Every structure is written in structure tokens, then in C-alpha cells.
Amino acid sequence: MDAKVSWKSHVLVLPFPVQSHINPMIQFSKCLASRGLRVTLATTFLLTTSMHTEAGPVRIESLCEDIDEGGGVANETESHGDRMKRYKEVGAKDLQKLIEKQSRLGYPVKCLLYDSVIPWASNVAKELGLVGAAFYTQSCSVNAVYYTIYKGFVPTPIEEPITAVPGLPLIEAEDLSSFVYKIDSYPHILNMVLNQFANMDDADWHFLNTFDKLEDEVVNWMAKQSPKRMMAIGPTIPSMYLDNSIESNHSYGLDLFTQDSNTYMKWLDTKEVASVVYLSFGSLAALSEDQMEEICWALKNCNYNFLWVVRELEEEKLPANFVEETLGMGLVVKWCRQLQVLAHKSIGCFVTHAGWNSTLEGLSSGVPMVAVEQSADQPTNAKFMEDVWRVGVRAKGGENGIVVRYKLENCIREVMEGDRKEVMKRNAVKWKELAKDAVDEDGSSYNNIEEFVTSMLCISEK
Predict the structure, then answer these.
(1) Is 21 a catalytic residue?
(2) Peptide bond preceding 235: is omega within 30 degrees of 0, i.e. cis?
(3) Is the pTM of this model over 0.85?
(4) Rounded to the nearest 5°, which phi and psi values hold at 210?
(5) Percentage of the chain modeled with pLDDT above 70
(6) Which residue in 10, 21, 206, 344 is the catalytic one?
(7) Each residue of 171-210: b (16+ CB within 10 Å) or e?
(8) Which of 10, 68, 94, 115 is an active site residue?
(9) Burial class (CB in 10 A: 0-12, 13-18, 19+), 452
(10) Regions of the chain with pLDDT less than 70
(11) Cis peptide before 157 (omega within 30 of 0)
């Protein structure tokens, strides 16, 4: 492709500055860059220091350095509301400066692609006359529920199953995002996820981090709620694990935690096919000591090989001598490249917190799952995992939220050797193939991305 066309079609990408939001937007950025657009991703300075060369053709810029100095958006000494207010004030100013800087360098930005939970970015795009595009990192079903609440279609607090959205299963209140189910517990976060629709009609494009076959009815319903183009473009995971269309695209390009892949991959190589239980609860979840102990007992009682990601800050919650007592049977690591692990032939089960990125990665890898949900959108994802996609089981916690050992043990056994084992595995493989079909040439996500790229290239030629 002509380089002049490429630099004239400049997309600036602004994710919400946490790993679970950055990863899918990095991958989407790489996808756009591979098709001839110039793409720059902007995030806080501290996060840019964790990005490496596998971000590939995507250029990285930093902003909000004074936010970093105060401890970042995740600063625990501030209330969430104060942090978001400060991020908005500083971010809007720095974003405009960055856009002006790109123009001075000869690379004027044509489109601002922003995380939907920071809708103030849409105001910046509008003020500067840019194409505005919103990217929704969570599932379409979860966002559809948020939308019905924002529009007042469903009264709160929610006490009855939601029936306002076609394609959703019967979702009880406890299956909803914790921000909604426990509506007074996280008021600022609830406000953030609802207000992503505040200026929804101002965006020229809406991108959904899913694929049509996975949530087809819900995607179609959401698309009718906006006068602008809304389309599924996922799953946004490194292409090596799907269609292999982007050269050397093995990881997202952001590692907040150190990991030694040689250790755990060599260990997995010694295990038989589908014999290992892989456990990871994401980059943010903080399990209680009681929950950690219940997991340890469940793993001991199951007696399967296991690989467990326990972040460094969580290690002290492990019972004394657990690692030594399970040596050989199990391996505990501080972090790993999850897709690399899920793609390994030895993995038979994925015990996950059911965050949307992990859910998509499990589905795209064809690995049956056990959902141990913690908060946020995870209960809804777990509900779909068990009852809609039928690729796993849900280990529900008691009144205190803790999943006791015998429940987790039974769920793991059900996936590894139970009566539904073969059905779950067949369904997991089916969704893996459908995910690949979506991003492959002439697939639904592929064509949707092509439509956007073509539109951007046409703008650059005017």
C-alpha cells in the first residue's frame, strides 16, 4: 500500500488505562495498522513503560504524567469518583495537545478511537472535527443490560429477570454485573458504565469486542439503538491464535507482570493431553485468604495436574507449604502468557474469574471452563458460559461470596471427566472455529473492519 495513503489515514486510539481494557484495543490497533492505517495508541506514561516491541506497527504515545505521579488511575488513596474526575480533566487537555503535536509532525489525526467508558473523548473528537469511534471492551450482552438501565427501560434496583433485550437468556438479578446487582456498592463505577451511552449518538462508529455468531441477536438489537454504524469486530486476540493474518502477532504487547515462559511451558510439555487444570483470576481480582485456601483444598482433592497463576501480591495468601506439598503435581507462577498456555495440548480445563478477555480467550482456544466469578461483568459472562454457549460450569459462591472446596472440586471434575465432558469440549471447539471464521477473510468481523478501513482511506483521499 502507498505510504502516503497510510500516513494520511491516522487513527489515534485511547483505551481506559487498565490492562483488561488496553489489551483488546492494542490488538484492534494492530489489526487496523496491518491494513494500511497509521495507528497511534495513547495511554499513561507508566503503562507505556510496560509495552514492548510486539505492539508491532502501532506507535505508542504517553499522556497524563501527573496522573502517574499521583499513583495512576488505580491510586487507592483517592475515591474512584475523584480519580475519574481528575483523569477526565488532565486527559482531555493532554489528548488535545497530543493531537496538535501529531499535526505539527505532519501526521494529522483523522479519527479518535476511544474506550466507550471515557465518553469525554467523544467531545474532544467533535470539537476538533475528527471522526469519533467508540470501542466497547465488555460483552455486547453486558453492555445491552447497562443500556436498558441507562435509558430507563428497566427500573432499579433490579428485582426481576430482565426481558427487555432480545437474545438474552433469563437473567436473574444475581446474574447481573455486580455494579447493578449491588447497586449501592459501586456508585461511581456504575455511573461510568452507564454514562458510556451519554453521547452515544455523537460517535460515527461503534465497535463491539465480540463476534456475530456469539451474540447475534443482542448485537442486532444494540445496532438498532444507534443511528450510526455499530458492528462486531472481535474476538480481539493476537492473530497467531486465530487466523495468523498479522506477522509475528504472538501477544498483545503489554505485560504488567514479569513471567518466565520457559519454566511453565517446559513443565506443560511433560504432561499428557488434556490432563492439566489451568487457573487464573486476571490482573485485578484479589481473592481472600479463605477463598485461596478453599481453592488449594479443591486442587489437592481433585488430584489433577494444575498450573495456577498467583500474582506476587497474592502469594502471601497461600497456605503454608502448599507449593512444596503439591510439587510435581502443580506449578504456581506469578504470571504467564495466557493464550500460549491455553493453546497447549496438555490443558484440559480453564478455571477463570470469567472476565470478558479471559472468556473470549477460552472460547477462541476451545478450552472448557469453570467460572469462579468475582465481580463486575463476570456473573453475566459465567451465566452465558454455562447456559448459552455450554462450554463450562459455574462454581457459585455462598452468601459470603466464597466458593467452597467441594463445589469447586465437583465443577473441575465435571469438566475433566464428568458426563458433560464431551458435550462441553465439542461446544468449545465449535466456538473456536466460529471465532476463527469471524476474523478470517470474508468473515463477519473481517468485513466489518474492512468497511471501516475503506471509509478511513476514502477520507484521506479527499
Answers:
(1) yes
(2) yes
(3) yes
(4) -160, -175
(5) 90
(6) 21
(7) bebebbbbbbbebeebeebbebbbbbbebbeebbbbbbbb
(8) 115
(9) buried
(10) 1-7, 49-56, 65-81, 250-261, 460-462
(11) yes
